[in-house]
Amino acid sequence: MSDPAGASPPALELLRAIALRVEAAGHLEPPGGAAVLRSIVEATVSLFDAEAASIALHDPATDRLVFEVAAGAQGEGVVGLSISTHEGVAGYVFSTGQPIAIADVAADPRFGSDAARRTGYVPRSLLAVPLVDDDDTLGVLEILDRRAPGGFGLRDVELAGVFARQATVAIRATRLERDTTLVMREALRALGSVGADDEAPDDQAIEELVRAAVGGLARDGDRPVWALADRVARLRSADPEQVGLLSELLDVLLRRAPRGGR
Q: Which residue, among 53, 93, 85, has the nearest Cα to 69 in the 3D structure?
């Protein structure tokens, strides 16, 4: 039986190699997407007992912050709002990379009252933390008007940072999946041997190739391996000597593993 859409064996093997790496990334990081971000802001609202929480992501094409998800009684009006990367508290936090808690936003010159009025809700107090990883600042998490007296404190800033890190991981995972899919599609379009009369493959042919490439990757027998990989991934912040010790232990296990296995 020939390969789907006429793909050559080397091309299919290349796709399998890419798909394996995407599968590994999907197991080492939580799934991304708007649903995950929405669950994060919903949990933030609940934990802080706040009126609203939202996540604004940086759009490199326009160099603006776009509010993608929100939760809370006063949150939905901000979804879709686009502001400058230097506008308001969100812009300040994004451009400086520093978290901030403001007890009285009306008295703070960094507060963007015009943008707030466009959402239909002007907060009294807020907490904002950047979404930062090793490579870049991706956006901002904002929490508005905690219902409990006393406003936001230092402990709240630290706790919001935990939610921000989870959001950052989800965003990176989503972008990895999206970017890898785009790379695979462009690579397939560039394969002159795919499709009739050496023409570039159409979308249906591409989908058939992708399905063939990823088929059977997540087998039940692999689950213990992925569980181990997940534990190894958590050592990214561990002491280098501990990581070196783990590497030596893995080398011992590999030498003892039976040859010829998958």
A: 53
**Buried-exposed string 65-103: b where 16+ CB fall within 10 A, e elsewhere:** bbbbbbbbebbbbbeebebbbebbbbbbbbbeeebbbbe
Eight-state DSSP code of residue 133: -
Q: How far, in Å, CA of 212 to CA of 194, rounded?
A: 14
Answer whether CATH 1.20.1560.10 is correct for domain 34-174: no
DSSP code of residue 78 = G
Which residues have CB under 8 Å from 193's CB, separation 6+? 6, 7, 8, 11
Strand ranges across the sheet with 137-146:
82-84, 64-71, 50-59, 137-146, 126-132, 100-102
Domain with CATH 3.30.450.40 in the chain: 34-174
pLDDT digits (tens, 9 = 90+) for 186-243: 666 665 444 444 455 566 666 666 666 555 555 555 556 555 655 665 665 667 766 7
The helix (run of H) or strand (run of E) holding residue 24 is helix 9-28
Distance CA 82, CA 141 (A): 14
16-34 pLDDT, tens digit each = 655 655 555 555 444 446 7
Give the tens place of pLDDT for each residue, 112-136: 778 878 888 888 999 999 999 877 8
Task: Give the DSSP letter of residue 201.
Answer: P
